C-alpha cells in the first residue's frame, strides 16, 4: 500500500512513526514545505526567556530519523493540488522549481494551521512579527535582542507566555487583548483576574478590551499601535491571535466545518474513506459537549496522528476525543485547565453549575504549603463533571490530568467526592483537594434540592422496609 503524508509537524511525525513501527514494509512518502519537521512551537517562549539554550532542541525528530525508519521524506516540497477522486497529487520542488505528479492509496492530511492574521492595517510592517514556526521564532529572537519595548497582540497561550518571557528578560512589555480577560477560551474571568494581577506584578502592562486596528510609524521611526482606546508606542509587535486550519488542498473534496477544519469520524477518517486527517487541520471530538470543536493543541495532534497511522490499515482503534487539557507556568504559579469553563458551557447551551475551592494543597501544619484555587464546573442534570481550572504556586498540573480522565469516563461529582486518592501530609489532606471540590459540588446540589437520585432512591427503599 502506498501512503502519502502531507505536512509533518506533530501529527505527521506521529503518523509516520506509527506506520513504520507497525508496518515497516509500507511505502511511505512525506511531503513537507519547510526544511524541518516536528518543531515544538509551544517551546518558543522558553527559548526567548532563556530557559532553553538552543531553539534546535525544540525538534524531537528529523527527516533523517524518519528516513532511517524507512520513509521517503521530501522536505522543501510543496503540494500544489490534490485530486481525491483520482488519488493524485501535484507537487513542486521548492529548490529546483520542478513540478511533478504522484499517486497514493491512502492519504494522511496533517497540514496543520497558520497564525490567524487579523484584518489590521499595517500588519505587514517589518516591525510586526508572527509567532508559530521555527523560522518565525528565530526572527523574533534576533529582532527582540535590539528592541526594548515589546507589544504583544493577543492573550491566548502564546501571547501570555511570551509576555512572561520578555518580562523576565527586562523588556518593557504591553499585552493587548480585545476581550475583558486573557485566555478566554480556557479559563474563567475570575481565574483571568488572578493571572492578570500576577502579570502586572511582574511589570507587564496588560491592556484588556483593547482592540488593535492598525500598525503605523511616527517621525521617530517608532511603531505606533492604534487601538479603540488610544495609540501606543513600541519598538516591536508580535501577533498571536489564534490559528486557522490549512485545508485549501481538500476544499470541496471532503466535509469541513464552517471554519474550514476537516471533519473526521471516530477513526480520524474524513468523508473520503481513503483520506485521514490529524492535528490542527481537523476538528476534535470535544467530550464535555459531545460535539466536534476546533482545538489546535499539540496533545491532540500527536494522538490523532498516531491513530491515523494505525487506522489506515483498517480502522482498528477509536479516537477517544479530547478535553483540551492544558497547563502553563506563569512566573511562580501553575495554571492548569481541562474541559469547559462556566461561561463557555453557557454559550454552548450546556446546563452548568460551578463551585470554587479555596484552600491549601497540603496541611497547614506542614513546614510549608501554598494556597490552591480550583474552579469545578458540572452538569446539574446528570451530575457529570464538565471542566476545571486550578491555580497555585505549587505544581498542580497533574490534577488537571486526573480530572481530564474523569470527564473522559463520564464521572460525576459524586464519583469525584469519594474516588480513591492517596493521603500523606507530604502531599495532601485525608481527602484530597479534588475529593473536597467534588464534595462541595454535591453539597451545593443538596442545598439546591437536587440530591443524588441514587442516594435518594436507596434512602426511600430503606424507609419503606423499616419494621
Could you list some keywords that capture this structure?
five-stranded parallel sheet, alpha/beta, globular, 12 helices, 25 strands, disordered C terminus, 467 residues
Describe the structure in your own words:
A hairpin with a 4-residue loop joins strand 4 (77-83) and strand 5. The model is unreliable at 457-467 (pLDDT under 50). This protein has helices at 10-22, 44-48, 63-69, 134-144, 157-168, 189-201, 298-311, 342-347, 397-408, 413-418, 433-447, 453-464, and strands at 2-6, 27-32, 72-75, 77-83, 88-93, 99-103, 106-109, 113-115, 128-130, 149-153, 172-176, 205-207, 212-217, 223-227, 230-234, 236-239, 243-245, 275-277, 284-286, 291-293, 326-330, 333-339, 353-360, 371-378, 385-392. It has 467 residues and is an alpha/beta fold.
Strands, helices and their partners?
Elements: E1 2-6, H1 10-22, E2 27-32, H2 44-48, H3 63-69, E3 72-75, E4 77-83, E5 88-93, E6 99-103, E7 106-109, E8 113-115, E9 128-130, H4 134-144, E10 149-153, H5 157-168, E11 172-176, H6 189-201, E12 205-207, E13 212-217, E14 223-227, E15 230-234, E16 236-239, E17 243-245, E18 275-277, E19 284-286, E20 291-293, H7 298-311, E21 326-330, E22 333-339, H8 342-347, E23 353-360, E24 371-378, E25 385-392, H9 397-408, H10 413-418, H11 433-447, H12 453-464
Parallel strand pairs: 1-2, 1-7, 2-3, 7-18, 9-16, 10-11, 10-16, 11-12
Antiparallel strand pairs: 4-5, 5-6, 8-17, 13-14, 14-15, 19-20, 21-22, 22-25, 23-24, 24-25
